[in-house]
Fold this protein.
Amino acid sequence: MADHSTPSQSVAEFDAEQPHDLWRTLRGTCPVSRVSDGGAMVRPTYIVSTWAGAKQVLLDPETFSSSINAEGTARFMGPVLLGMDGERHRSRRQLISHAFRASQLARWEETLIRPIITALCDSIAHRGSAELMEELISRFPVQVICGMCAIPSQDSPRFLQWAKDIHRGMRDEGMGRAAAEAMRIYLEPLVEARRRERGDDLISDIVHAEVDGERLDDEEVFGFLRLLLPAGSESTYRAIGSALLAILSTPGLYARVMQDRSILPSIVEETLRWDVSNSMVSRVVTRDTLIEGCPVPAGAGLRVVTNSANRDEKRFAQSDTFDLERPAKPHIGFGLGPHQCLGQPLARMEMRVGLDVMLARLNNLSLDPAHPSPVVAGASFRGPPKLHVLFEKA
Ligand code: HEM
């Protein structure tokens, strides 16, 4: 099947820090476009940019396999859900999903999530100004995951570093491997202890989870815990940054949310539609096929740009605008189909509670005019790199 029948984009264009213009052009001209890389990529790779294309791919796991997600990282991550297909994925996901149900998570809201973000706010409240991404927001979700796993809070900086190193391990295998091994050494005695005696924490939930007499083995437990950190912290903190930037830069929105906190869930959903932090997901094509009428050959890699699908003008009018009044329609910021984000109830809770507490504890919050206006940036992962703010000293 000819793979040159679709227009192509260079890797540099595709990896640009501000890709929305490119994605808009692709949606309007060609929903499936080849990334031209001068032969550097291990396989031909295509970008899927539209709502219809993304939906088709994510809802057909037989034609579009997730095994590509295990290729680069499997050597140091161990078995991870993201890279599994079919029955193996279904049974492993079922074992873990119990621990992530909204009803299970409710217990963490007041005992863990609110106290953690409150303490982080209080640590800067006396200063009157801060760069929130580095000093506060990036520290929040990783502390929550550590707390859920009953890991002492003083060790959370190590987990933040491991999460970053595992994330970078896609490009630097040595770094990913070292972080994965260090995590295993740290976690091994904890996992053993929770096997012996069940506690009220996530590691206990995972090691004791049982469906049809089956449990996760040690390698699977470590693989899952390694995935949890980057999956749970990197995406969530960026999403909180984008939501706060939307609040502080959309005319009238800060005043409105200070009057009426019940709009926070809508702010969270519109952020996840407007500029979701996890921009794209990957698949590999298992048989020659058509996506929205465009041919893609077996063996090709796909980058399904969920962030672009969420701005598809055919589904969301005025899609570039952050608009709380738009008719409520589901977005695919958390993906779709069998791999749809397992942590979405937790991510939503952290975003809502995190914003609520920051707005309450940092009085008269505004963007600091002494710094360039912040913007959401990034290709695969998006969020404001910096968020310099002013507030009243406590
Ligand atoms: C705003 C924050 C988040 C975003 C935008 C996000 C996005 C996504 C997306 C798009 C997928 C699907 C990947 C695919 O189809 O290949 C996914 C999967 C996953 N996410 Fe999230 N995620 C977020 C937060 C979290 C959190 C807080 C956790 C857990 C602590 C988490 C755990 C997972 C796991 C375990 C999977 C794999 C599910 C599977 O393969 O069956 N995520 N996420």
